[in-house]
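Hello,

Our lab assistant flagged a job as stuck in the queue for most of the afternoon. It eventually completed. Since we weren't sure the result was trustworthy after the delay, we are filing this so someone can double-check. Below is the sequence as submitted and the structure that was eventually returned. Let us know if re-running is recommended.
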Amino acid sequence: MKSRVRIRPLALALTVPLLACPGTGDEGDADGDTGNTSGEANKLCTLYVACITEVDPASASDLDLRLGNEGSCWRDPITAQAKCVEECAAGLGKAELDYPSNKICETPSELNDAIFEIGQAIFDPDDPFADPAWAPLASGDSLELVLGGQGLMMFPIGLRGANFVIADDPTNFTDPKMPKADIWMDIEGYNIGFAGHFARIYNYPLSFRPLSGSSDINEFLYIAVIVPDEISDPKELDGKPGHIWIELDPYDDEPILREIDVIVAVSGDGF
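-- returned structure --
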């Protein structure tokens, strides 16, 4: 799904401060080379799969393929993920009633049902001042390079999530309830940035807002992943395979990991 490069004024393009290098906290890499998995399963679903593996091994394999740590559900859009979490909650509740003596099937007091989806922001080529639109990213999709104001080249990574706390005021970046994220991006042959990655951003505040028309889904317009200064000709990146690794850290909840493979798209007259 290649499309034209969008030109975006910098002042409007940045929804939060850019963090081109790590922020506060531990600056260790913690090994971002995590392979091509889709990421961790929802914590509640992990418990459900473990329960069924114990009490009904014959059906556990199919369940693990959908809801387990590398299950197909976690590559689906956020609305489909939410249905998977509902299935896990209902299934675990039933298993707890059916097998009351089996501790592994007990429903936890904290459900840990947070989920999120990786997408990208798509800008209107005819109106550079308009807010970008959300576009989902599936494994192998094209990720568009955008030329922002003042010549900054970036990949605008959008997020949608559910079942976690967001800040009451999305502009208050000191609010401890604001979710944060660690992001790695690798591009084959161009991992010349911090810790051997194309780009790495640490402790990035995510000013999620409720998605219009939905009472359950929250949206963050985009994280601006900046192209390293050493890359003078961005067209060299066109068609290169890339890998994105994002760990979302919600307030008072366990981190959630998602990964996705992409193909870099650099096109249009802006470059």
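-- support follow-up --
The delay was a queue issue, not a problem with the job. The result is valid. Helices lie at 10-13, 43-55, 57-67, 78-98. The chain has two domains: 7-37+114-265, 43-105.
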